[in-house]
Amino acid sequence: MINRLKNIFLIGPMGAGKTTIGRQVANHLGWEFDDSDHEIQRRTGVDIPTIFDFEGESGFRKREKVVIDELTQQEGLVLATGGGGILDLDNRRNLSSRGFVVYLYCSPEQQYERTSRDRNRPLLQTEDPLKKLQALAKEREPLYRQTADIVVTTEKRGASAVTREIIQRYQSE
């Protein structure tokens, strides 16, 4: 049986800082770090926009489900998941049962500031990216909160302050 507290899983919207903060948390704990989006890219040899172009969002989500299932079975791992990873019920169950889940909260406005120049975000290649971020937040926010053990805001905060808060709250569990 996997010890739930031997992993930390970061969930939240794009631009919340999951990868940056995840690396810092893993480094502090002396654990491995992985990012489900990066792992999908490593396995396929192409970037996420290319997967979306050829397989659509549903094809990407199938790949994501396999990767999240495999990665969450490790121990001593800090995992940053893609923003939509929580859309799948099995992903939510695996994250909740196999690790300490941290929801990194970030408003759509802050996300927009952080991601507006990033062309590697297929869901934002639209007329009104801020409106898209607001719609995604409305859909996903309840799932993030339902899945998370704790909520930590990254709004107008540096990565090191967020990292310290996560480690402190994790160690007090």
Keywords:
173 residues; alpha/beta; Rossmann fold; five-stranded parallel β-sheet; 7 helices; 55% helix; 13% strand
What is the element layout, followed by pairings?
Layout: E1 7-11, H1 18-29, E2 32-35, H2 36-44, H3 48-71, E3 77-80, H4 89-98, E4 100-105, H5 108-115, H6 129-147, E5 150-153, H7 159-171
Parallel strand pairs: 1-3, 1-4, 2-3, 4-5
Helix pairs in contact: 1-7, 2-3, 5-6
What is the overall shape? globular
Q: Give the number of helices.
A: 7
- In CATH terms, the superfamily is P-loop containing nucleotide triphosphate hydrolases
Instruction: Decide which structural class fits the backbone.
Output: alpha/beta
Radius of gyration in whole Å, from Cα? 15 Å
In short:
The chain is α/β, with parallel strands linked by helices.
